[in-house]
Amino acid sequence: MRTRPAARAGRYAALLAYLIFLAFPFLWLLSTAFKPPRELGSLHPTWIPQRPTLANFRQAFDEQPLLHAALNSLLAALGAAVVAVLIATPMAYVMARHRTWPARAASGWVVVSQAFPFVLVIIPLFLVLKRLRLIDSLAGLTLVYVVWSLPFALWMLVGYVRAVPVELEEAAAVDGAGRLRTLVSVTAPLLAPGIAATALFAFVTAWNEFFFALVLLKSPGNQTLPVVLTHFIGAEGVADLGPLAAAAFLATLPSLVVFALLQRRITGGLIAGAVKS
Fold first, then answer.
1. Residue 57 to residues 68, 81, 204: CA-CA distances in angstroms?
2. Which residue has the higher pLDDT, 30 or 188?
3. In 3D, which of 160, 155, 162, 182 has the Cα closest to residue 171?
4. pTM
């Protein structure tokens, strides 16, 4: 049945409103980053800066070590994404292909663990890392990010593994391939969109994370970018709005770049047409 013009227009209007809702914070942040101090303090703010300036960006780099903090965030986020994917992929394969009661119990625990708040685990986590001598280190923070993103990464990959036709693995077994060879040569290439989406989730989660980094990192040289952004807020809660907006805008760019690079992998349908009907 054809969609009525009024219904179609309503859908497009709702989609446009949703896109505007999503884009508003980023566009306002971008506008604020290029405004001079006089426009930032105006009682009648405008969308487009009347006199755009790069002074906020220069001031942000002069006041805080943004590049070093960004490097720390990048190392922790990349490490967490890679390790989480390497661990979650074989675990997801086992849970998807062997539907025993331990696998079902593990799946239930994965879902339940996502409801735990950060505050609930920070004290035992701090004690464990202290005993391992990983407090105030990027290695310890990366380990925390891996543990925290692993349940959801596992839950995502289980669904992708179940979408892979079992007939392909059976054909590989007939040809003499073992479980490991089947996983590496047959299943893993078809999981490329799921692995890319999982890696993107783990990376963005670690890149934007603030609470664990604030508690576990004390040395200024080890602090990540979200923690350094708080230094633009004074002791009395007054924010240096221009440099803060400029630094926050730069902090959002890596996530956008990573998503743009992995977009085709995420949306690609590599499984389509793998099995003839």
1. 15, 29, 23
2. 30
3. 182
4. 0.80
